[in-house]
Amino acid sequence: MLSLLQAGDLVSPVFMRFLAPYGLSTVILGEDLDHNALPVLRAKLHFKMRAIKPDGRNLLDAILEAEAALRAEGDERDILIQPIYADGEPAEDEIARPNRQKKSSRS
Q: Residue 105 has what pLDDT?
């Protein structure tokens, strides 16, 4: 397993390459345990003000590429991400409310 500094040197450039067009400014990497008590890397992705929200496919591609870089060096940890936007709050999934059609009054 790589040290946190070595892992950061591999992972940060990958996230920047994939997500900089969406306003990614900083990647902060930490170590954590997942729900099975296995070691994982937690990446806090800080985005700039008025950043475009990346779609799920871009985030997934970035994670898979970063994990592939770790595995090439013998590190089998998974990466969990936490996007954080300029207001400092973690990003939340937005649930769109369905458009309700007004009932037309039939005379």
A: 56
